[in-house]
Specification:
Strand content: under 5%
Number of helices: 9
Number of strands: 0
Distance between the termini: 53 Å
Largest sheet: none
Helix content: 55-70%
Order of helices and strands: HHHHHHHHH
Radius of gyration: 18 Å
Length: about 200
Amino acid sequence: MSTAEQGGAGAYARARVAIDAAHAADPVRAPDGRAAELVYAERMEAWVVRLVPEAGELLRLAARCQHLERWTSPRSSYPEGKVAYLSWRRALYVQQAERARGILIAAGVPEAEAAEVATWVSKTGLKTNAGTQALEDAACLVFLENEIAGFAAEHAHYPEEKFVDILRKTWRKMSAGAQAEALRLELPPAIAALVRTALGG
């Protein structure tokens, strides 16, 4: 390995440590006691590697930044309603992208690479940028595999039509490869039934 390659590997390693340290500050804890966002980061990276076997360290780091310090800007910090929800989500994308870029640059990752990660994390170029799409696919799959049952329980007052609409929107955001992976998931029966309805059968 050349000196330049070693330097790059060192920068990536430093960035990974810094990203995970930021996740560790999440006050919400997973059942195993770890920070919830650290668990989420691991699930994101695992799905990206599964979807993109040739994924390099930069894309893997970007996957770990998907919810970077999201806990600092909770949904409750914005008013109720769809317009406010969309504003909150857009602000999160910008916040997470800039935080990721800053961490990577501080770790020694070249500015051009850090900017590329920021593009992916900000969801810029969905459907046209491969890195952005990989992160979106992984996020949708983490939601379906690990979060949708809890989401449904938390929003039990939603009518079935709203759940079906959410699933349809999630499906449309995914690539064909991610959709194929989603169909292989072992979902709770009630959720699987909603997915079948959303997909028209």
